Amino acid sequence: MAEPIIVTGTALPAPLSDDAYSIVTLSEDRLDSTASGRIEDALRDVAGLQQFRRTDARSANATSQGATLRGLGGNASSRALLVLDGVPQSDPFGGWVTWPAFSTIRLDEVRVTRGGGSGAYGSGALSGTIEMESGTRANGLSGNLSYGSRNAVEANALLGGKLGSGHGFITASYARGDGFIPIVKGQRGTADIAAPYEQASLAARGVVRVGDDTELQASILGFTDRRTRGTILSGNGGDGADASLRLVHDAGYSRWDYEALVYLQLRKFQSRFTSINAARDTVTQSVDQHNVPSTGMGARFEMRPPLGSAMEMRLGGDWRRTTGTTNELFTYVAGSPTRAREAGGQSETLGGFAELSGSAGLFDLTASGRVDHWWLRNGRLIERTIATGALIRNEIAPDRSGTEWTGRAGASVRLPGHVKLRSAAYLGWRLPTLNELYRPFRVGADATAANPALKPERMKGAELGLSWWSYLGGPTIPSMPESSGAAEEVSRPRIQFGATIFANRLTDAIGNVTLGSGPGTFPGVGFVGAGGAYRQRLNLDAINARGVELDLGFTAGPWHAAASYAYTHARVRADGAALPLNGLIPAQVPSHMASATLGWKGLSATARYVAAQYEDDGNSRKLRNALTFDAVAEWPLRNNIALMLRGENLTNARIEAAISGAGVIERASPRTLWIGLKLNGK
Questions:
Q1: 3-state secondary structure of 614
Q2: Which of 13, 197, 324, 465 would you label with 645, given CA atoms 20 to 30 Å apart?
Q3: Is the model's pTM score more than 0.90?
């Protein structure tokens, strides 16, 4: 009888080098049991991982949703690299993340690596990597349908099964809601309204065997995202489509393994901005960013020669090109725009890496090196008078290029009692986005000028870590639970603990630096009104961040618990025009973050805490701390159907998300309750 053909749908196995780094894995079950059902919320389980603002993708402006780790701050562009099945997911033009594109129902797990990832990854893996992996073993139909506060509806469906000699699935997701009023009560005016949203995605993935130990993985994804920011004339969102092919040959330790990936991303973004008078009863259009097309394309290759089970070599390279242009209308007079702006360009990176890892007794060692060459081309900022077509600005940025050398190294040692000690040091870098380089922008009364001369950000860091695990209530076993293969052991109570101390230094950090205040006319942005700040994107000398991360997990029969805590001490080092920022805390960086979940069967409760943080680089606008509680309950009914009850921010805590120059406070999600049905056909 012929052996069954098995496809995995995954990349090559996790490298041996992982033993030296701080890695947190969110399982399929955890992704499926967050109160909001959204991936950006599930990632809050990893303390120290944050978006630029505290709002999620139902109410945030899409441009504020970059991801970062370890208190390195940001300006809405991601300083952590997010990938889905190996494909980078940051927006090609702006570097932010369109979270509604990713439905948790399609994912098997998410792996978060804290710390620079420039061994196998290049630009963008500055503070770490977030790797989302799709599942391919679903059979039949699964899904959920929920109704929530403020007329919200969410629906997710997955249909999976055999695909010739392989496997495949189709997923569809839809979410809409009337939204809440972003401005806090007591500061609202008649101009303030709710912020509705509507979002949908459709994805398909297939995996087929094309030879001995070789499989072809094909994925397509499309999404649409529409949000409103709490006033008329303030809609934002976009549409996108992705396609990728990945060939994986995994023959084990005895032969060459390899992986090849190609991908294409198409994006179209739009956003409208308004100004509101002091009484908050009049809204005026200020900018209509009506069309921002962008494209990302790339390829990646990795191979591993047969060196046996105790040693591993990785050799590979990658290439990525992004192009994008923002088309905007601005300077409104009597409700009509008088000027038009076009800004954009092209960026490209080409890199190669080599990594060698091995085991020697109780020790595991790894070292890698990487070289990347980058290009910035066709940069421009053009502004015209709409009535006559006359040029107001025609700034063509010179083409630039450069080379970055990075790498990482680490070691770990296994001690008696299931204790592992590890250490690592690493270098990383990030190329400025097209948005940072070429596009000026306004948020309320504040205006920020672009800077086509921005240099790449560079990071160096080091960490020390400890991990420990044990089975409880009986004699221990000599091997790690992942390798025991013993179901009776896995079902026993188990506890695991991890601790890491780290120190990172981000040089040439790109920040929005305050250079003046309104009223007045400033270069690159024009007039700034009273109460507004004039800023420009500049390279700061450095951001120094050091801290501690703690992670705890526990399982005992139907009980499970997890907790994560991060303390970060981050400070800016600056001189020249940015000297007033020297010694201050980077904008949007809290010193403490914590998350804890306790569950029993289908019931779970989650508490999350984020300390106070500053809205602005000058540390003059302080967002207060926030403690929230979520809960999820599932009761089985019949035929794999369960009743779901979910609650977000159950105490209706005020989560401050932004403060304007005039002191107007914007909040994140208030209490939200859900009821629904869940079908588990996997």
A1: strand
A2: 197
A3: yes
